[in-house]
Amino acid sequence: MATGRPGRNLDPHLVGEERLVPMLLHGASGADIAVIEGVMGLYDGRLGTDGFASTAHVATLTRTPVVLVIDVAKLSRSAGAIALGMATFDAGVRVAGVVLNQAGSDRNTAEIIGSLEQTGLPVLGVMPRDVRLSTPSRHLGLVPAAERDGSIRMIEQLGEQVARHLDLDAILEVARSAPHLDAESWSPAREVMSVGASDHRPVVAMAGGRAFTFRYAETEELLTAAGCEVVTFDPLVDPALPAGTQGIYLGGGFPEVYAAELAANRGLLDDLRSAVAAGIPTVAECAGLLYLAESLDGAPMAGILPATAAMAGRLVLRYPASVAATDSLLTKAGEEVTGHEFHRTRTSPAAGESAAWAIDHEPVGYASGNLHASYLHVHWAGHPQLAQRFADAVYAAPMHVVSPAPPAVPVTRPRDRVADPLRHHGDVETGEGLLDFAVNVYDGGRPAWLERALRESLTAAAAYPDAEPARAAIAQRHGRELEEVLPTAGAAEAFTLIAQLRPWRRPVVVHPQFTEPHAALEQAGHTVTTVLCRPENGFALDPDAIPDDADLVVIGNPTNPTGVLHLEDTLRRLRRRGRLVVVDEAFMDAVPGETGSLARERLRDLVVVRSLTKHWSIPGIRAGYVVGDRAHVRWLADRQTPWSVSAPAIAATIACTSRTATPEVRERAATLARWRDFLEGGLRGRGIDYAPSAAPFVLARLGRGAHAALRERGVAVRRADTFPGLDSTWVRIAVRPPGMTNQFFTALDAVRLLQPTL
């Protein structure tokens, strides 16, 4: 999490001594420094092997200098003796310096440093005690960072302390002193073969989230090299397996901590049962084994394995050489595979009729033609034949069909339910003879220069459209480079491209807001996490409400339907390493001076989406664009359908982003502000609750039944209960000229007179 790169394991027992250096080079590819964090004591390895697979063994194989970190909370001069003993115990291990951790008083620290001066080992830093930096632990050690909402803040605080108290220049010199490693980097493509059709990448559903935090990064890389598409799902919250699943991988984690929540997600458990029963190849290690059992500490699990699981009194920690008990999904009978076990639960029985392994001559686990489940963690980089067999089985498996996911947040619906709330938009509210307060299009004619540009664009229809001139106009409008902008067929195309950009692990949409980004993500097979802005807080965003592990955050500014204009600093606080922030500025043209816009800011991992259809009264011309960092704009462009932006849309984009349009932009924004003030004043005078707006619409709480009652009186307003987080008491009202708004108030007054409860 601190580096934005996956953590990896260098373990001679798991992958073999010969792979250690190649895997180090692979994991550190593109980095300036590789940091190997030791586990247990420096010389503690597999029992009975003279330290095989210890940190010292790894340091020797990789020719890596060692920095000792000594906890001196309860030490004084003995720290020097410990350091000297560590440095001289094995001549093949080079201890290059010492960091003192948990240091107390200055006086005691000076005593410790004095003892180290006698050893000749340099002190590279002294970290004082800091209660803010305590890391919680439980029955299997430290709580993983992915399970802690404060992980990012903890890392920031650690970074500050490290920069203040460690001699980073000296530590970098230690790293540079490591000799060159003359070896070829490990490559998953050399370990496995891609099988099947080149145009089909079968989906492997890989468990993630807080309950499933452990798996080897190379497992995913091997499966990808074998031609699979690995899609992460969260058993805590996802309603079903990813669309098109042909293989399932359930790795390690802490399901015992989340047993009740896992049990409550019955939809996914049912879907998992159905998939395994249908023959979908499934691998389950440790946490996965527990998840497939009938129950875990009494909480019902998937019930795929005829076993129950429960916490036990004794920790199991071993590094066995396991023998495959039978031919199975992963193994050939008699095959020896190294692995490791680390758990405090037990299953009863310990093995099925067909066991997965024999460990110390005892059968353990469960195996069949399409299922392999046990406590044993196997590093597939050390045994790539397992990855190959799994990938082969995945290619041959049927595609699992799942039902569409339900809306992320249940909301109260009126009797006339809509088929898909996320796809409901204001245009369906209008009709012949109705006053239109439902659609957020500027109520006025188009400028003559825009009409002329649209007419002239028809002459360009004889050729395929070229969007480059529109790109240049957008870039000039926002002071950006050509490579930082992309014309799109409205904002809707942009959201579809973003949804397809990568296999998002935890996409977040801040609601209530325009639902198209949410719908596009679901259509692309992602499960969306909803973060709600509450009416009691004025629909303001709390950046701390965004989960730390969110890798995509979508938010509107000003937001549809609330009209809230979030502060620029608030939006900047959403940025994290490895996270893309998408700001929908479809209505920013309506904000005088475009206060709060981020379109001109060159920030990494920030994309701004704009629309031209509303402000310029051209909803039939799908014209929009994206502004962002070069990398993301390039990736979006690579996924865009050729010629998706039509000639009229290109002409409209050029015209509406030109300097000619600037005076009209300002005039329309000022006009909308006056109309909105008139609407809000009327609502306020009637004692109606509404959200103060910076957009060309106002969200008001007219009461249950008001939407239908107004429609009966010839007024169409936009129902708001299709926005996650809102119920049927809310409606969205488009701002219109005062004369038309007075007609709205006349109808509203009549409705309120007949229905006093509104």
UniProtKB/TrEMBL annotation:
Residues 55-139 form the CobQ/CobB/MinD/ParA nucleotide binding domain. Belongs to the class-I pyridoxal-phosphate-dependent aminotransferase family. It comes from the Bacteria. Signal peptide: none annotated. Its cofactor is Mg(2+); pyridoxal 5'-phosphate. InterPro entries: Aminotransferase_I/II_large (IPR004839), CbiA/CobB_synth (IPR004484), Class_I_gatase-like (IPR029062), CobQ/CobB/MinD/ParA_Nub-bd_dom (IPR002586), GATase_3 (IPR011698), NHTrfase_class1_PyrdxlP-BS (IPR004838), P-loop_NTPase (IPR027417), PyrdxlP-dep_Trfase (IPR015424). Keywords: Aminotransferase, ATP-binding, Glutamine amidotransferase, Ligase, Magnesium, Nucleotide-binding, Transferase. This is Aminotransferase. Residues 434-742 form the Aminotransferase class I/classII large domain. Residues 221-383 form the CobB/CobQ-like glutamine amidotransferase domain. Its EC number is 2.6.1.-. One of its GO terms (molecular function) is ATP binding. The lineage of its organism: Bacteria, Bacillati, Actinomycetota, Actinomycetes, Propionibacteriales. It comes from Nocardioides panaciterrulae.
